[in-house]
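Schema walkthrough. Field components (list of strings):
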Amino acid sequence: MDAPPVPDSVALIEARGLTKTFGNHVAVDGISFEVRRGEAFGFLGPNGAGKTSTMKMIGCTSPPGGGALRVIGMDPIAQASEIKRRIGVVPQTDNLDIELTVRENLEMYGRYFDVPREVAAARIDELIEFVQLSEKMTSRVEPLSGGMKRRLTIARALVNQPDLLLLDEPTTGLDPQARHLVWDRLYRLKQRGVTLVITTHYMDEAEQLCDRLVVMDKAKIVAEGSPRELITRHSTREVVELRLADDARDQLSASIDGLVDRVEWLPDRVLLYTETGDGILTEIHDRGVRTDSALVRRGTLEDVFLTITGRSLIE
Amino acid sequence: MSAGKIVRRNSLVYWRAWRTSFFLSVLGPVMFLSAMGLGLGSLIEEEQAFGGVSYLSFFATGMLAASTFQSGAFSATYPIMNKMMWQRNYDAMLASPVGVRDIFLGELGWIGVTLLQLAVPFFGVMAVFGVVDSPMALLAIPAAVLAGLSCASAVFAYTATLQTDEAYTWLFRFIITPLFLLSGTFFPINQLPEWGQVAAHLTPLFHGVELVRQVTVYNVDVSALWHVSYLLAMLAIGTMVGIRNLDRRLRP
Ligand SMILES: Nc1ncnc2c1ncn2[C@@H]1O[C@H](COP(=O)(O)OP(=O)(O)OP(=O)(O)O)[C@@H](O)[C@H]1O
Ligand SMILES: [Mg+2]
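Field assembly_structure (string):
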């Protein structure tokens, strides 16, 4: 039985003060956010930030510990099964049925969702095509590459034609080529109107895929906005990365005052936050600071995270 | 109710190897009954000690219950742990409308099917060896399956609490194997000291063995009701506790 359609105006996910504790360890500490229909929403944060715990509460496989949560307008405890019918889940670690073939994995999952057989058969053909596994259709899952397994997991999450797709670190551990393929497929899903919720600790992934995101750290949301907004608000348009000998560091520190918005002294390099990277670099060189290497780049979400928490995203 | 889907999933995997496993479930009883029943049995003329039946009959009936019992125990260890924490198949199932109850009951249902696949050939071999002759004896099959299932439900409930498989060595060495040896499978429990007999009466396998013997080679009396009740109660408690444990485990 299908749940009633949800009006477009209603947020697909709505969390207010959402909390999760394990024993006396607080994994998610009173976070609030809203995911709107059709958008790609991200949770960016380092290991242990509470991303997976949050995703599991949204996916109704872990009961919320406190606060309010609505998913597709429904209650994740009382209406867990109806919610699950309308969402797809790509977990952090693949949990494919390695004793079954690629196709059987999808068929079995279709059965779990009560998709009628003939409907499932046609849909599975399409999905296998979509994730480019046609050649592996009858292969067992075990020998597939990491990228293939990930794509199969994504196909499996689509077997019930979900309105909402939850992806927990969809590309962690994949090589660049495999990552781009996954990104491309996710982009297409979004074009088709599927709402995506993605966790990641890669800022480039968040920038590529997310319309809006929250930055999580130590169980809390520490920033929220579109990637551009976050960079504008918490970082600068450009960043100059310098590698310096010790005496050059002292020299820089003496002459940098007032020149840039902010300076970050990291053990291996120095970051200068500014709107005009090239101009600053010329200015520094004019003042006689000798740099071992210098790079002007755009501000990134990594810089945002560093600014807010004083630590880098990937330890 | 989605438990049937879990049974189907398991049967699909099992189907690939059914020949081997059918072969083994015939070979096992043939070997046991030949060696122990006929071989050892030929040296034992005394039938009084075995309730007025041959040692072959005594042993075969005990062994039927003990086999399903052990198989039920084993089925609820590694295969379940594998799907619960190594492959994480249950997490995948739970992301669908399939629930924890469905998983538990579906797995138990499947174990029931495998126990049937064990008990039926075993019964066939017993018939060939001339141990059973009445239609009533067919009840030995459900009796043996019930014994196996009640054990499986309890072991499953235990598995749901484990973080590693280390405990299984202990489970088999100190619980399952002693039960196998001391529940009246190989020799009547009245050979045990007084306290041993009392203990035997508390063990599930004893009730399974007694039940199988009553419907096959002994006469059925009212104690059968008690044996059935004991096993059903164990199955019910194992299932209730098991579902609760599995829920805590899979939905933290
Ligand atoms: N079932 C559990 N029992 C106890 N503690 C848990 C459990 N699940 C998560 N935690 C703890 O909660 C915190 C948040 O974990 P979570 O998995 O949500 O983080 P994450 O942001 O997904 O991290 P990662 O990037 O490493 O996947 C961690 O400290 C983790 O150890
Ligand atoms: Mg995680």
